Amino acid sequence: MSGSPSDPGTDDRSKTLAKSIGEVASPLLAGFSFTNVIVIITSSGISHFLLPGEAIIFWTIASISFIVAIQYAKYVADGEAKLRRQLDFYYHVGVFTFLIGFGMALAPPNGAEVYVFRWFASGLAFTAFVVESCKYGIHEWKHRSVKLKEAKRLLDRCRRRRTARSNAAQRAPLLSPLYGSTRQRIYLDHLIRS
Questions:
Q1: How far apart are CA 88 and CA 94, in angstroms?
Q2: What residue spans define the domains of the chain?
Q3: In sequence order, which residues have a C-beta less than 8 Å from that of residue 99 and are 6 or more positions away?
Q4: Per CATH, which fold does 9-125 belong to?
Q5: Is 104 helix (H, G, I), strand (E, B) or coil?
Q6: Can you tell me the distance from the alpha carbon of 167 to that of 180, in angstroms, rounded to the nearest whole number?
Q7: Is the pTM of this model over 0.85?
Q8: Is 114 exposed, middle or buried (0-12, 13-18, 19+ CB in 10 A)?
Q9: CB neighbours of 102 closer than 8 A, spacing ≥ 6?
Q10: Burial of 84 (0-12, 13-18, 19+ CB in 10 A)
Q11: What is the mean pLDDT of residues 128-138?
């Protein structure tokens, strides 16, 4: 199975992912989100935006999420592969909120000159959000279904062992006279207790 913890390439892929997210994507998008917040706040033409407050909130959440993703990327790149899921989560929260903020900032107020084009651009941003969230959701669903299959396999193995121990415990009194040596009794005791 590709990407499993037993796969020797998983750690290298995690480090490569962490470097690309932590050194390129997240800092760039966090800076862009923060800059957009400042532009809207300092804009003298706030009336050019339909939802400026909502865009500011979403871009602020995106900036914070990207900064947290940068921190997790540092730990994953240093070998803490168990934090990769948190890195993925915060990075995707940042991407989702960035796209939502972008769509809200592009939505024109009523009577704007380029009304149709801004709605089209806003729709593209929201469509990108939907596509990205579906892609991430499908990836997470597949990952969880693989984990669920592994858990079911482990549970079945435990049940088989428990049944074997139970059967050995039931047969032990019947078989103990047949196994006269001390070594065989110790082995039976071990089967019963484990």
A1: 10
A2: 9-125
A3: 125, 126, 128, 129, 132
A4: Four Helix Bundle (Hemerythrin (Met), subunit A) (1.20.120)
A5: helix
A6: 20
A7: no
A8: exposed
A9: 36, 55, 125
A10: buried
A11: 91
Q: Is the pLDDT of residue 186 over 80?
A: no
Which tokens in the block code for residue 45? Answer: 């033409």
Q: Dig out the tokens for 91 from the structure.
A: 């990075």
**How distant, in Å, are the alpha carbons of 11, 104, 106, 161, 167 from that of 59?**
32, 10, 13, 53, 62
Q: Tell me what percent of the chain is helix, strand and coil, each rounded to the nearest 5.
A: 85, 0, 15
| Amino acid in position 94 | G
Written as six digits, the tokens of 156 are: 């079945």
Residue 130 pLDDT > 80: yes
Please name which of 184, 3, 157, 166 lies closest in space to residue 88, comparing C-alpha atoms.
Answer: 3
- 171, amino acid identity: R
